[in-house]
């Protein structure tokens, strides 16, 4: 969902399709295993499901997959992208499951949802750093004393009623 | 066996729709009990934290077929997690006909008729008109873009104590600084001061006729585990002379569907005509250089904007397309709004719909996140949502903390799609000229359309075939059973709905008191606004 660079030269799970860390380095697997979420036990099952779909994709698209790797990992990055698009398309079988997986993987990157946000920023969580999430004050709370251009930037609608509502 | 308790008035749900009648009935002398499915949290509990388990205790993501709805799950309801934009619905909304071809609101309701009730809400929940120097950067940027495109733009009235607000942008988590005027700060404490009792973690399950003479309804409930809302830890029942159902537009119709056999049937319109308020979100990927060159803005030396995470989430809004003279389904408002990172996945980055919202290009776009601007269009949808048969308990099936599956299905009609297309085109006209930004609607591949403004699933009206409630908010054929939440609002509003839900709840109170008195309770209507 959020591609990243390989963690080491022979890293097969991560395709290395984009610079900078991706969802996995941002903690997607930790997040999926959070006890609060309660889906950790389902992950082997889900991996099996994805791999079955990857095999079918390879068969229908004439791809030869390295037998030493799990089928989804063995797919080229562009094929993985197309397959992910198919799995997530409205009406596709098991789609709700894949949508949840996609959401959680992205939530690891965009929000460090397995970590307390202030702590995640302190330890330079790769996703929060990538999106440029601002740092909190020393007490772990966010405040923005400078927040406004401070001037009128448009004229209001002529039919605005007292209180600022539309007529 | 659990014992059955008795009360004069039982309120189900503690958001706008529940808190307001609870206050008026308690202040008028009735014994009031409020059942609330979620926990009772207050300002110190509201942390600035996106870890699962923090805000997810009080916010639900409810996934239907073709639509996903965000809603509050706590004492105070969605008022605790909402963004506090507080607007009166434009006058033409009350004349809407939708595709049914007749006026959908009760004939007694117009903007002028509702204005005194809006006034009353604003006494309890002061709504601040932001001055331009209180509008945060994203709102300022949107306004400047509107002005450049020849449009008008207004600061948005907000139910926020601006003197206390730190512009932290964490409203979804509940306000840690008690600056946002949720129900926790006005109607609910005023209700409890008059003896109303709030029971958190109590989920109503069915409404049936009472067995005790003089009482009208018997409501059964489940008590939920505070750590895992999927686990029931107790059951009970309460008999009441009056029931006020205010569980929100996603729960109220479902409770009634489950109760239909017990109640001897409910009106056909229960669980139909759901509206997502025509919500349509787009992300604008803004070019910082163009902000400087085209709009002349600079918030700090060398930084034209980069203000997405800063501020109150809703700052400015264009009313230009709320023109009563134009045709239905072409009118909408465009509002600048902030969405926290949990929704980032939904933003599209390319033109290939199936894969536009993830992958390499999307990651590149994330690197410009502080330069995003999002806009919410609130359009005239066609009330096309329908609920399927109810789940065994509650209003949806909770699969994980904060994640629920609903039987609601939503297939936008050609009318709704026309409205969305018009809103998309206007957002582009305002924001894309000369390359100021690139605008794309949220992907519908992930979650269908997304709404934080569920409405109209048990609506009021004059036509019994298409409205479940009469003009007073009473369920047809069931005296003493009132619905006062967003489900009673007949149509989408073209603005954020909370103030209208609250005004309609205020308006329903004299009738609820009257009905309660008829059932033998000594109660009066006329309490002043809570302070
Ligand atoms: C993130 C977000 C931002 C928003 N921003 C704005 C905004 O800026 N402006 C605006 O006008 N509107 C906004 N809204 C919408 C607004 O908050 C809602 O329209 C409004 O609060 C709905 O009020 P209600 O009384 O109908 O329902 P709610 O406030 O949702 O209250 C229903 C209550 O009933 C409880 N409940 C449900 N089922 C049961 C049961 N079986 N038993 C007992 N209790 C039950 C729920 O837990 C909930 O507390 C926002 C909403 C969200 C989620």
Describe this structure in words.
The complex is a heterodimer of chains A (167) and B (531). Chain A is mainly α and 167 residues long. In chain A, 41% of the residues lie in helices and 0% in strands. Chain A has 7 helices and no strands. Chain A starts with 27 loop residues before the first helix and ends in a 36-residue tail after the last helix. Chain B is α/β, with parallel strands linked by helices and 531 residues long. Chain B contains 10 helices and 21 strands. In chain B, strands 1, 2, 8, 9, 10, 11 and 21 form a 7-stranded mixed β-sheet that branches. In chain B, strands 3, 4, 16, 17, 18 and 20 form a 6-stranded mixed β-sheet that branches. Chain B has a 6-stranded antiparallel β-sheet with strand order 6-13-14-15-12-19. In chain B, strand 17 and strand 18 form a beta hairpin. In chain B, helix 1 packs parallel to helix 4 and helix 1 packs parallel to helix 10. The longest helix of chain B has 21 residues. Chain B is globular. The model of chain B has no long low-confidence stretch (mean pLDDT 97). Classes of the chains: A mainly alpha (167), B alpha/beta (531). The interface between A and B is large, with 72 and 85 residues. Flavin-adenine dinucleotide binds next to helix 1, strand 4, strand 9 and helix 10 of chain B.
Topology diagram in text:
The complex is a heterodimer of chains A (167) and B (531).
Chain A: H1 28-32, H2 43-61, H3 71-74, H4 77-87, H5 95-111, H6 117-122, H7 126-131
Chain B: E1 4-12, H1 16-27, E2 32-35, E3 59-65, E4 67-72, H2 111-124, E5 128-129, H3 137-148, E6 154-155, E7 157-158, H4 187-193, E8 197-199, E9 202-209, E10 217-224, E11 232-245, H5 252-263, E12 279-286, H6 288-295, E13 314-318, E14 332-337, H7 360-366, E15 372-379, E16 386-387, E17 397-400, E18 403-409, H8 414-431, E19 437-441, H9 444-447, E20 449-451, E21 481-483, H10 498-518
Parallel strand pairs in B: 1-2, 1-11, 2-8, 3-18, 4-20, 11-21
Antiparallel strand pairs in B: 3-4, 5-7, 6-13, 9-10, 10-11, 12-15, 12-19, 13-14, 14-15, 16-18, 17-18
